[in-house]
Amino acid sequence: MAGSAANRTVILAAGSASRMQDGIERYVSNGEELQAIRKGEKMAARFGKFPFLDYQILNLVESGIGEINIVLKPDDRFFQERYTTFGEKLFPEAEISFSFQEVTDGTAHALLTAAAFIGEHPFLLLNGDNLYSWEAVTMLMETPSGQSGVVAFDIEGFNEWTRKRLESYAVIETHEGRLTRIVEKADEPERFRVNDVLNTGSGQEIEVEGRVLTSMNLWSFTPEIVEMCRVVPRHMPRKPGKPGEFELPDAVQLLLEGGREIRVYYACEDVLDLTRPEDIDVVGRQIRENLSEKITNLEWRWRRSG
């Protein structure tokens, strides 16, 4: 494979899922599934008989990723048990391991728990509660050796449900195809319109004019980001009475200030987002209507596993 030859992926899945809790029983009736979500493992929600995270891992192995590390809370048992028991059978192309975030203290802190897995290797980083396309993942895997990259998602590609949450996402600014700044939870995201020429994979580029681009936390990194996560200061509190956390965008900013470049890859497509209980209906419909081949693939893998 050309580019960075990243063969490792870290999946961040140790959040508290606090926004998923209120009314979740209206959408989930299976006892095991409901218990896991109550503990924070919201990616246990099933779609076509398979947990949400199965679809993420399927895209990764189809993209050529061979080593996957899932960051969990220590008491999260659902995925430990599932992938310890069935991981090798369902996804024989990949070795699945786990890291544990003892205290939920931000995305930079979560990434640090996977430092031993990362070692000196380039890697992909992504959210467990978002589902990105195979195309977006493979495009990012073209990041040249020694460089980092991020997929910038054009909001015009999002479904209407996701677009309503624009103010909760991070918008990005670019210059000459490189990332210059991430703006978290911008009050007026429409002000941050990008005019630039961006990468689209396979050596192709596209001229982007007046587009609002978001980071949905789909990155390729060199191991340098681990050191930035070690030294990044705690972010200012975002809510009264709650301490700030160690946040990945702040660590990325340190990387930029140190003179490192981050290539921006452009995508105009939907990203499934599993944040609130009502998302289960929306995501379920999107998977049934647009990702039926993924369901078929997982069913075949399950039958093959015996």
Can you walk me through this structure?
- This protein is of the alpha/beta class.
- It has one domain (8-236, 246-305): Spore Coat Polysaccharide Biosynthesis Protein SpsA, Chain A.
- The protein contains 11 helices and 14 strands.
- The protein has helices at residues 31-38, 52-62, 78-90, 107-112, 115-118, 134-140, 160-163, 224-231, 248-257, 279-290, 292-305, and strands at 8-12, 46-47, 50-51, 67-72, 95-100, 123-127, 130-131, 148-154, 170-175, 178-184, 193-201, 204-221, 262-267, 272-273.
- Strands 1, 4, 5, 6, 8, 9, 10, 11, 12 and 13 form a 10-stranded mixed beta sheet that branches. A two-stranded antiparallel sheet has the order 2-3.
- β2 and β3 (50-51) form a beta hairpin.
- The longest helix has 14 residues, at 292-305.
- The chain is globular.
- It starts with 7 loop residues before the first strand and ends with a helix.
